[in-house]
Structure formats: C-alpha cells, structure tokens
Amino acid sequence: MKLTGKGLRLKECEHVIICNLEFEGGRGPDVDGIQIKPKSKHIWIDRCSLCDYDDGLIDITRESTDITISRCHFSKHDKTMLIGADPSHTGDRCIRVTIRHCFFDGTRQRHPRVSTLVTALLDLDSLFEKLSPIDFVFYNSNILCIMQLVPDGSPDPE
To answer: What region holds the Pectate lyase domain (predicted)?
Structure first.
C-alpha cells in the first residue's frame, strides 16, 4: 500500500507496528513520511519504503522512545531521519532508537541526525549507496561529532 500526501503521524501511541508500506511525495511545511511525537512508545517500523518528502522521512521527537526501524528503504531524499529535535528539550534524553538492516539509497544527510543525548543503536550492516561521504552527525548543545563509515574493503576516503 502506498501513502502519499501528509504521511503518517503517531501521537501518544503505544505498541504500534508499521509494516510493508510505501511513503512517497509528501508536500508542505513540517510534512514527514512518518512523524513520531509526542510520548509515543514501543513503535516498530519494518520493511517500509520512504522517499521524496518536503521535510524528513522519519522524525522521532518529544519523548518518544523504544522505536525500532528495520529493513526499511530510504531513497531520493535530503533529510532522511531526525532523532530528537531540539537539544534544549531535556525530555528527549529518554529516547531510545534501534536502526537495523536499512538501505539508504541516494539520501544526502541525517543518517540519522541525533540532536540530544539519546541512545541510538546503529547497525553498521545497513547498506549505503550513492552517499559521498557517508556521515552520521550527532548534534548536542556542546558537542558536534561526525563519524564517517568506510565499508570493509573500501579505500580510505582521505
């Protein structure tokens, strides 16, 4: 099933599984493919395909936690994923997200962007194509850390 337009917003939801859906072509300000806020818990996004939204493909903010994103395909997009929106929002420190076996194809940034002190497990077995360079950016009011991922057998980008 393909969802176009405004995307999907989960607000104060618990125990939700989103599986085998396509999200494409959302237009307008603050329109994300999947927006999880506020205080949603125990969400599993599995085997979904997301591309071409005006804002992000997946945003997880405002004290939402215990989110798993697995086997999803992200493509043809700029701002892929946001975890925690504002470093001054201390409630976002409870956020826990697992990203596992996802495919990032032709996405530019936010793989994910983590903007506060959260726990994020990134599975480096995820596949990345057409990203140059692949970087994971963690934002905090005091810290900016960029980590480049170089797949095994690839030449060092330096």
So the answer is: 1-133
Task: Report the amino acid identity of residue 45.
Answer: I
Active site residue 93: no
What confidence score (pLDDT) does residue 115 get? Answer: 73
pLDDT band of 93, cuts 50, 70, 90: confident
Domain total for the chain?
A: 1
| Sequence-ordered list of residues with C-beta below 8 angstroms from that of 62, at least 6 positions apart, any chain | 37, 38, 39, 85, 89, 91, 92
SS3 readout for 26-93: ECCCCCCCEEECCCCEEEEEECCEEEEECCCCEEECCCCEEEEEECCEEEEEEECEEECCCCCCHHHH
What's the mean per-residue pLDDT of the chain?
A: 79
Print the domain residue range for 88: 2-148
Of 54, 9, 60, 65, give the one whose Cα is nearest residue 27.
54
Q: Which of 9, 47, 110, 113 is catalytic?
A: 110
